[in-house]
Amino acid sequence: MPLEPRELTPRYNVAPGTLITSVRHPSDDAPLVMDEVWWGYRPHWANEKAPEPINATVEKVATSNYFRGAFAHHRCLVPADGWFEWLPVDGKKQPHFLCRADREPIWLAGIWSERPDGKPGCAILTEPARGVAKEIHDRMPLALNAESLEPWLDPHLTDRETIRQVVHHLPAETFTHWPVSARVNRPGNDDASLIEPLPAG
């Protein structure tokens, strides 16, 4: 996956409806770029009242009229260290940070489209939760293994069944999680303490 190195500014509380980092081919024959896209998917042909989802389910992304063109031609990767989910506890929602147990970066599968404003926007694919992720939520982002990154980004690979055969998620045992501060509930908070485990007790 040849790509020019780029220095990324750490972010610890990435909210929907903001710019996020992605890796993609801006067109079929363009080289890979790492750039910023809007986290919110609304294709250029949709009207202003059309939905702007931040996620697309693996069960429907290849067949939905809204997503299938992007699934075939405009796939991307979103780098992340992990993600947050909220677990109901005693009438409240306790945030948890989910990540690889080895703390290596995660590559999340996404799709993108040019938005009505001419700028790219994306949605991250989700799948039924697996392994320890099921303890927190019934869905999780689609995190790809290393062998799947190049085929996922290949704009000339458009057949749905072929994509499914060559693209695979990380094993369930890859992941772990822990409770974190409720400060993450405020998008304005963005510092490394947000992903630190809460003290025991």
Structure description:
With 201 residues, this protein is mainly beta. It has a domain of 132 residues: Alpha-Beta Complex (hypothetical protein yedk fold). The chain is 9% helix and 32% strand. It is built from 3 helices and 10 strands, in the order βββαββββββααβ. The strands form 2 sheets. Strands 1, 2, 3, 4, 7, 8 and 9 form a 7-stranded mixed sheet that branches. A 3-stranded antiparallel sheet has the order 5-6-10, with no helix packed on it. β5 and β6 form a beta hairpin. The protein starts with 18 loop residues before the first strand and ends in a 22-residue tail after the last strand. The model has no long low-confidence stretch (mean pLDDT 94).
Keywords:
201 residues; mainly beta; hypothetical protein yedk fold; three-stranded antiparallel sheet; 3 helices; 9% helix; globular; lyase; peptidase activity; DNA-binding
What's the short version?
The chain is mainly beta. It contains three helices and ten strands.
What fraction of the residues are assigned to beta strands by DSSP? 25-35%
Named CATH topology of the domain at 19-83 and 104-170: hypothetical protein yedk fold
Straight-line distance between termini: 44 Å
Average pLDDT? 94
Structural class from helices and strands?
Answer: mainly beta
How many strands, what sense, and barrel or not for the largest sheet? Answer: 7 strands, mixed
Number of strands: 10
Q: Spell out the helices and strands N to C.
A: EEEHEEEEEEHHE
Q: Topology, please?
A:
Elements: E1 19-24, E2 33-39, E3 55-57, H1 68-73, E4 75-80, E5 82-89, E6 92-100, E7 106-114, E8 120-128, E9 139-141, H2 149-153, H3 160-166, E10 175-179
Parallel strand pairs: 2-8, 3-8
Antiparallel strand pairs: 1-2, 4-7, 5-6, 6-10, 7-8, 8-9
